[in-house]
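Sequence in, structure out. Go.
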Amino acid sequence: MPKFANESEEATAFLRKQTGSSQLVCYTYIDAERSADSFFIVKTTNKVIQVSFEEITYDPRNYQSLLDGLYRVIYE
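Output:
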């Protein structure tokens, strides 16, 4: 079954601030029942990156921790 990611204004704003890229857009798919199926899609000027929540080290009670972890996975 296809999964549809929605644009995440908060994640996009965070990553744009961290990277300085005004072209970057971040999408997210969150499965409330199976977090292992949740993911981000980050579209830059020259690539599309998919990052599963499973690849990110974060505190599940803190959304900012998830965004920080996403940044670390892609850019560090």
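Check: The CA atoms of residues 23 and 45 lie 6 Å apart. The chain has one domain: 6-75.
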